[in-house]
Amino acid sequence: MSASLTAILRRDLALAYRQRSELMQPMMFFILVISLFPLGIGPNPEILQKVGPGVIWVAAILSSLLGMERLFKDDYNDGSLEQVMLSSTPLPMVVLVKVFAHWLTSIVPLLLLSPLLALFLNLTQEMYWALLLTLLLGTPLLSLVGAIAVGLTLSLNRGGVLLALLLLPVFIPLLIFATAAVEAASLQLPYNAQLAIIGAMLLISLAMAPFAIAYALRVSQN
To answer: Most CB atoms within 10 A, among 26, 109, 145, 147?
Structure first.
């Protein structure tokens, strides 16, 4: 990684941890949704085990949307995004680094909390490991695809609702394959096929999303 990209990564991480209140919002939302869900449907362990993986994934998707709008917003408002576009550093590489910083600060804390929250939903050890693997493969996909929509809605004053409307239908296939993998694990069945599909989606996104994000940002600047 070049010095300029390293500087951008360090800057984004430093800014994220200075804004601790905004950083805590997705985490608190994730905890509240999963903690309150058993109270809403009852303490039946079989029901919780059946719906638990879907609940965790839906909570992860909604939590990621909370912090996604500000992915490029601050840079857009203070003019630094325009300066980056005019620099010699390739814009697709810059946005990839910024998306990685967003994933580290907004999504990784959710992954670290998932073992504790899995206890609330009575997940078995096999189900938990399958869930963790789907989260490790799927959550970077959330950030990459979400960043495209963020770039398209960047110039809007209140693009949060539009952002959710654009992204929620796109994330449905990921939700289906992720929950199918955990369900297969609960039945002691192999779930390599589901993980392979999620992994293929991630690789395609890594190859194409940085260029799509860069194009969306340029459109928003015009």
So the answer is: 147
Q: What is the DSSP code (8-state) at residue 103?
A: I
Q: What is the pLDDT of residue 122?
A: 81
Helices then strands, each counted (H, E), the chain: 11, 0
- In angstroms, the CA 176 to CA 38 distance is 22
pTM of the model: 0.86
State the Cα–Cα distance between residues 126 and 145, nearest whole angstrom: 29
- The two tokens of residue 56 are 């965790």
As given in the structure block, the two tokens for residue 142 are 């959330």
Domain extents for the chain? 3-221
126-140 pLDDT, tens per residue?
888 998 999 999 999
Q: Cα–Cα distance between 187 and 171 in angstroms, integer?
A: 25
